[in-house]
Amino acid sequence: MNQDNTTSRLTHLGLMTALVFAANYARIVLPVSIGGNTAFTLANIICCLSGLVLGPAGGLASGLGSALYDLTNPIYAAECWITFLTKGAMGLAAGLACAGLMRRGEGSYGKYLFSTVVGCVCYYALYFLKTFLISGLFAAEGSAALGTAAILSKIPASVFNASVAIAAAPPLAIVLNNALRRAGLHKPN
What we know:
- Helices cover about 75% and strands about 5% of the residues.
- The chain contains six helices and two strands; from the N terminus they run H-E-E-H-H-H-H-H.
- A two-stranded antiparallel sheet has the order 1-2.
């Protein structure tokens, strides 16, 4: 890897990290009596987009940007390391799926859509596991029933957030990757 390529990849990684961080502020927090807080957020779009643009390295951008946001918000600060892992897994899964599909040709809406779905499924599996463990089994008076109730309370916002990411990330990836390619700044994942 030459110096220009390294600099370009680090720049893309830094920009996507900053976009993920900023996108986390576009949220509506809903206090839920079971399982803490949940939110409608646009950050998942950029977390998936990180994987679609950067490949597996997008996991670092999505995890780091989201964890940095958590550190600025007292509601989420204690769980920033969990966010780094779960949101990082979202970008990583989308990036791995996308990189695997790109070996078979250029990016297309279908490939980006599939990769975004993979990223969302990975994230929400981890998010619901975290919710079940922290709100149910590890809580002071927790139980499996309480953990299940916490998951159920988070499903509406989670379905909305995943749907928005699945609808928005693929077209944004097409536009962004085409612009980067035309500018000579896009390298294969």
